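Morning, I've got a small favour to ask if you have a moment. It would help a lot if you went through both lines with me. Thanks so much in advance, here it is.

***
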Amino acid sequence: MRAIVDASPLICLSKLGALEMLKQVFESVMTTESVKKEVLVPSEEYTILVKSFNNWLITKENDNKELEQDLINSLKIHAGEASILALAIQEKQTNQDMVVVIDDLVGREIAKTLEIPLVGTLGNILLLKKRKVITSNKAKDLLIKLITDTPFRISAKLYQKVLDQLE
C-alpha cells in the first residue's frame, strides 16, 4: 500500500522519532511540494525531515492544479491538505492500493466524502503495532509522547479507545 502524507503526521511522527517507521508500513510514502514547504521550516524535527526527503520520502505533484485550487477556494482548506487530496484523487484513478495520512478534521471529512481511504497519526501508531514493527509498550509510549510533546490533541474517550486497541 502507498501513502500520501500531510504535514501534521509528518511533523508529529518526526517529533516521536517514528517517521522512518512509515517505510515499514507502506511500500512507498509520498507528499506534495506544498506540504514539503510547510514542514521544512526551522524546528527541532527539521533535520529528520530533510534526511527523510533526501532518502526515501517522495515528493509528487498532482496534475490537476485547478482541482487543488477549487478545494482551497470552495472548502477553505489549507494548501497542503488540498494538494494531498488532489494527489489522492489522481492516484486513486490509477491505483486503488493507496491511503491518505491526514489528521486535520476537515481534510479527513473531505477525504471520506471523496471515498479516499485515510488514516491519521494515531492510526499509524496502531498499524505499527499491528504489523509488529513496535511492541504494545512502545506504541503506548508513542501515544503518551504524542499527547505530551506535540500539539496533537484527542478526547479522553478516543485516548481510551486507542489504549484498548493497543492491549
Q: What stands out?
A: The chain has a mean pLDDT of 92.
